[in-house]
Amino acid sequence: MANVDQQALFQFLLRMGDNTLVLGHRVSEWCGHAPVLEEDIALANTALDLIGQTQFWLGLAGEVEGKGQDADALAFRRDVWDFRNFLICEMPNGDFGQTLMRQFLFDAWASVTLAHLQKSSDERVAGIAAKASKEVAYHLERSSDTIVGLGDGTAESHDRMQAALEYLWPYVGEMFASDDVDANMVAAGIATDPAGLRGEFDAIITRVLTQATLNIPQSTFAHKGGRDGSIHTEHLGHLLTSMQWLQRVYPDASW
Amino acid sequence: MQNEWPLWEVFIRGQHGMSHRHVGSLHAPNAEMAVKNARDVYTRRNEGVSIWVVEAKHITATAPGDKGPLFEPSESKVYRHPTFYDIPDEVGHM
């Protein structure tokens, strides 16, 4: 472990934890607003699973950083430019179909990524991945069913799902863009190169989206800037003002 | 309402060896989603190891108006309760 670049490992863990934190908060915004009670509870469960995974990823990130920050400090005391989540995680909920499409695309990425991370040379990373992958397997099963149900549903639900897919498609590429942090993780045997996971991801989404009678866009254009923090969308700042409100107004508040 | 999902009755087995018990109902578009919804609505606090769902319309029930002929005759048959036997102490709780 001594050979592992701790700064790169910290960045890698922030990326994992910020993805689940920001998406978890987004999904939690549906609480009390979903179209039916059953979906409301299902979305809240998903949000809680993601926040639970965040505690592990950011907890370990704080440990690796070694500056005394715990998961809460990392979640509530950083501002936009320090976040390392994919842009797709911070995209607004839109309608129910757009929320589910975002969830499905993320779940497919997460299931493929966590399967590989279970073989990580860092047993702390492998342990978190093993625990999270059981939750993600269920998330993916559920979001896939809903994508098929709505995509191959009525004319209106089909059109909304197709529009959601086209709206979110330019944010898929960032999940598989590799950089120096990834190269470091690959060299240390901690993680697999994201670029190499695209094939497995495409197999999942092609199967489900085809069954859902949706057309996968051909464009390879990809927005980027989330996972390296260079440029987030305008949506993240708004999300953080709501999520971090209490710590901003009452620093160190606890109960 | 035409667009309403059908109603499903949910049965959960709490632990291995116990029987499934009715815990409530929910709406879902099909059986698979009913199982998933039951998982999310009724097993959030580790309540179950197995889920059954059945569409409510498939349950045949007694009519409340028939309770006289159906149930009242058994009220006066106290001899059907095995309470007239002396149970030896060593048998323990029955």
How would a textbook summarize the main sheet of chain A?
A: none
CATH superfamily name of chain A? Ferritin, core subunit, four-helix bundle
What is the assembly state of the chains in this entry? heterodimer
Strand/helix succession of chain B: EEHEH
Tell me the helix content of chain B.
Answer: 10-25%
Largest sheet of chain B: 3 strands, antiparallel
CATH topology grouping of chain B: Ubiquitin-like (UB roll)
**CATH fold name of chain A, please?**
Ferritin
Most extensive protein-chain contact, per-chain counts: A-B, 11 and 13 residues
CATH class of chain B: Alpha Beta
C-alpha-based Rg of chain A, rounded:
18 Å
CATH superfamily of chain B: Phenylacetic acid degradation B
CATH architecture of chain B: Roll
Number of strands of chain B: 3
- Strand proportion of chain B: 15-25%
Key words describing this protein structure:
heterodimer; A: 255 residues; Ferritin; B: 94 residues; alpha+beta; Ubiquitin-like (UB roll); 2 helices
Give a written overview of the molecule.
The complex is a heterodimer of chains A (255) and B (94). With 255 residues, chain A is mostly helical. Chain A has one domain: Ferritin, core subunit, four-helix bundle (Ferritin). Chain A contains eleven helices and no strands. Chain A has helices spanning 6-28, 37-65, 71-76, 87-90, 96-117, 123-151, 155-168, 180-187, 198-211, 234-243, 245-249. The longest helix of chain A has 29 residues, at 37-65. In chain A, 43% of the residues are buried. The mean pLDDT of chain A is 96. Chain B is an alpha+beta fold and 94 residues long. Chain B has helices at residues 31-42, 67-71, and strands at 7-13, 20-27, 50-55. Chain B has a three-stranded antiparallel sheet with strand order 2-1-3, covered by helices on one side. In chain B, a hairpin with a 6-residue loop joins β1 (7-13) and β2. Chain B is flat and about 55 Å long. Chain B starts with 6 loop residues before the first strand and ends in a 23-residue tail after the last helix. The model of chain B has no long low-confidence stretch (mean pLDDT 90). The chains are: A mainly alpha (255), B alpha+beta (94). Chains A and B meet through α2 and α6 of A and α1 of B.
